[in-house]
Amino acid sequence: MGKSKELSVDLKKQIIDLNKSGKSLGAISKQLQVPRATVQTIICKYKVHGTVVSLPRSGRKRKLSHAAERRLVRMVKSQPRITKKQVCKDLEADGTQVSVSTVKRVLHRHGLRGCRARKKPLLQKRHLKTRLKFAADHMDKDKTFWRKVLWSDETKIELFGHNTQQYVWRRKGEAFNPRNTMPTVKHGGGSIMLWGCFAASGTGSLQKVNGIMKKEDYLQILQENLKPSARRLGLGRSWVFQQDNDPKHTSKVVKEWLNQARIKVLEWPSQSPDLNPIENMWTVLKKRVHARKPSHLAELHQFCQEEWSNIRPEACQELVDGYQKRLVAVKMAKGHVTKY
């Protein structure tokens, strides 16, 4: 015999009201078309608990005790790359057999969810030390200092952006329907390398790099674009140039030219793209360019130039004015990678 449907709260209240009015169990049962035993059970529960609302039930016995749950959470926290299947095997070896779904539910209850590991530069002890030193040395710098910095970097932009993800709504078995697939081409259909710079007052030059950049190519880019960008952005005379520690950037010929040109260079910690706000600018640029769906490399370059110049100065200033938060994040992370 199947399980009977539970009575509604309103019907249970009617039973209690009729009972309080002095009617017998049989009369209530006949009037409401409810079995007499059910009427009696509801009245008895009301007298004990003072309510007709269904109370929490114990349900099936827990597969994992509270102690086992805590052990499971500790295991995952100490080994964040462990899989759910491996967790099940480890628990089974200790005499506890649970399903992958149980492990998943327990971890979700404790706020742990499976996520893709973020790709970040490898940081060694010397990198942590220099990052912490950079944060400490510049923590007292105010917005006026950072507004005088000309930030620079290189980036590669692919024609079709093969690293992008696209989600679709589909039914089971429709994964390979042409409407639900994302066409790809080798090497993203080609790419271009760009060097760019910006400051709090706006974007500077954006130069395409032909072929593999050598130190001579980098020097030529600086000679042709650095000072014009600084003048166009109104940085004045006491501005500071930022570049990372790529071998081309720190080559002897580049250092000599920067010294001769009397350009002050910001001392930079290696492996620290999260400290360079131009990385956020590259993300904005790539999203805007790929939204326009360029069809060939020449068009890709054209769109890059247009979208770079379309970035509002207010967005640049907002990004730079919040720079101290990056330094605080590095300090809080003890030199390790941050969210930026």
What does this structure look like?
Strands 3-2-1-4-5 form a 5-stranded mixed beta sheet, sandwiched between helices. Helix content is 47%, strand content 9%. The longest helix has 18 residues, at 215-232. The protein is α/β, with parallel strands linked by helices and 340 residues long. The protein has helices at 9-20, 25-32, 36-49, 66-78, 84-93, 100-109, 125-138, 143-146, 215-232, 252-260, 278-291, 297-310, 313-321, 323-332, and strands spanning 149-158, 191-199, 202-209, 240-241, 264-265. The chain folds into 3 domains: 9-49; 66-110; 125-333, Nucleotidyltransferase, domain 5 (2-Layer Sandwich), CATH 3.30.420.
Neighbour order of strands in the largest sheet: 3-2-1-4-5
Helix share bin: 40-55%
Strand proportion? 5-15%
Radius of gyration over alpha carbons?
33 Å
Domain Transposase Tc1-like: 70-140
Pfam families: DDE_3, HTH_SB, HTH_Tnp_Tc3_2
GO molecular function, one term: DNA binding
Domain Tc1-like transposase DDE: 149-300
Write the layout of secondary structure elements.
Elements: H1 9-20, H2 25-32, H3 36-49, H4 66-78, H5 84-93, H6 100-109, H7 125-138, H8 143-146, E1 149-158, E2 191-199, E3 202-209, H9 215-232, E4 240-241, H10 252-260, E5 264-265, H11 278-291, H12 297-310, H13 313-321, H14 323-332
Parallel strand pairs: 1-4, 4-5
Antiparallel strand pairs: 1-2, 2-3
Helix pairs in contact: 1-3, 2-3, 7-14, 11-12
GO biological process, one term: DNA integration
GO molecular function: DNA binding
Domain Transposase Tc1-like: 70-140
Give keywords.
47% helix; 14 helices; elongated; single chain; Nucleotidyltransferase, domain 5; 340 residues; 5 strands; alpha/beta; Tc1-like_DDE_dom
